Amino acid sequence: CGICVKRCPFAAINIIGLPGELTEDKIIHSYGKNRFRLYGLITPRDGVVGILGPNGVGKSTILSILSGITTPNLNNLDEEPKYETVIKRFSGTELQTYFEKLSKKEIIPIHKPQYIDALPKVVKGTVGELLKKVDEKRMFNEIIEVLELNNLLDRSFDQLSGGELQRVAIAAASLREGDIYYYDEPSSWLDVRQRFNAAKIIRKIAENKKVVAVEHDLIVLDYLSDNIHIMYGIPSAYGVVTHPRATRTGINTYLDGFLREENIRVRKSPIVFEKRPPINYTNRPELLNYSKVSKTLGNFNLTVEGGTIHKGEVVGILGPNGIGKTTFAKILAGIIKPDNGTVSAKEVKISYKPQYIATDFDGTVRDLLMSVANINTSFYKSEIIKPLSLEKIMDFEVKNLSGGELQRVAIASCLSMDADIYLIDEPSAFLDVEQRLVVSRTIRRMADEKEGAMFVIDHDILFQDYISDRFIVFSGEAGKIGKGSAPLDKRSGANKFLKEMNITFRRDAETGRPRVNKEGSQRDQYQKEIGEYYYTE
Ligand code: ADP
Ligand code: ADP
Ligand code: MG
Ligand code: MG
């Protein structure tokens, strides 16, 4: 593409069109000769500025620069980077003032980093002690309540799950008094309710402070942001920041795949949210019949209503963390025997992608995929390898894969098996926005073409809305009681789930994608009044 390596094999996939205006003087930061280069930067502004883009194009680098952790080197690799030079470079723009103040410590940036797993190693004491210590805003009680941290206050950091740690990290950042707040991927590991509660806190901070947030869950990003910057590029090679767009048009542009002003295509074809007619079950063969099942594990008690699953359908499973979704998947997969109830009268073959993926496979990605399917068919190449971008990592050792790579390989491996039922537990975890869109399309296509049916557990509602024909909704009390519904038609299921979340949806007029109504807006009030939380048309 003329920017990185001369004949870049990925240019045709990622970028169609020539970002020819990307000249060296536009580089804001480079990690070294022939290493990643960042073109452009964002200007923080009032409200929430969202950043939308695939992994590896410099989103975290931007937050690191703006929060003063990294001093941008402007591609001058021979000298130590200095703010003086940076200030000169941005002369006459708002960023000049920003870096002047940042260098004199007249701006206090607060940063919730993307990677929070190091926190337990550096923070001593209990969750409550830390949060009390950083409570400069005197909002301890409010934030603890909204982020549901009350029963974690006495815990030490090494006893927290991913989702718990995330909420503590968001609380710690939000309690501090600063001038500008940076939240890097706040919804990772959180369930739907927790995502919206975190978003509410972030929006509250933005009432009188500037906020920048990186987010891959498009419904959360949409709800959270006032403006967004789309980023594009070639992962690990370079990333480009585009001008700010109003959130709605920005997300629609991204889904469309073509950035008109920049003349850049980020995807070959648009993602369209079609209104799918409800499945006519009468002429579809039954695949799986299960009765009401129950299971007790320690103090946790699970009951799920029975159901019948048909060929070609995708059943989305929705519900909070800790409420038995994975346990139900394991019961269906035959890994856990239910105390009461039976799963199937006849033999069905199950392909299962667990939530927590084991990395103990000895060999390469190619070895792994070859052990489950014939990967040399054109169908396999076009439906799995290509959309999941596995070409580049085919010869990597499975043990050395990153979270997102491992997830894509696990999804590919699950979908490759010849089975009647595919059980896919939290496929969107660790995936970036683009991979989520691609995976959802792959899952939907495979369901339409295969003889099998699918159960998909996931917290990304845009993803679920796109792939699912019906929903099973879980509710109860985390760690104590879980109740799963029978498979419900899409509207009843979504309605039941959204009612528990207390959010209402509308359809975007242009793309058909789901959008969350503003709490208390006329539409929100009306939909709640008539009990229609999902879009009604
Ligand atoms: P994103 O947040 O969009 O996923 P990052 O800003 O984390 O992207 O990283 C962009 C690219 O820069 C990555 O592909 C990575 O290869 C490279 N990179 C990030 N941090 C460093 C570093 N400290 N040293 C060298 N390269 C880095
Ligand atoms: P979800 O997938 O909805 O987040 P899980 O099915 O993983 O929930 O777990 C539901 C509850 O069951 C959790 O509180 C978990 O701690 C508990 N649990 C899961 N497996 C076991 C087990 N083997 N022994 C005791 N408790 C368990
Ligand atoms: Mg990042
Ligand atoms: Mg689970």
From TrEMBL:
Sequence ranges assigned to domain ABC transporter in this UniProt record: 22-258, 285-501
Occurrences of domain 4Fe-4S ferredoxin-type (ranges): 1-18
Molecular function GO terms recorded: ATP binding; ATP hydrolysis activity; oxidoreductase activity
Source species taxonomy: Archaea, Methanobacteriati, Methanobacteriota, Methanomada group, Methanococci
UniProt source species: Methanococcus aeolicus (strain ATCC BAA-1280 / DSM 17508 / OCM 812 / Nankai-3)
Keywords: ATP-binding, Nucleotide-binding
Gene3D superfamilies linked: P-loop containing nucleotide triphosphate hydrolases (3.40.50.300)
Protein name: ABC transporter related
Domain of life: Archaea
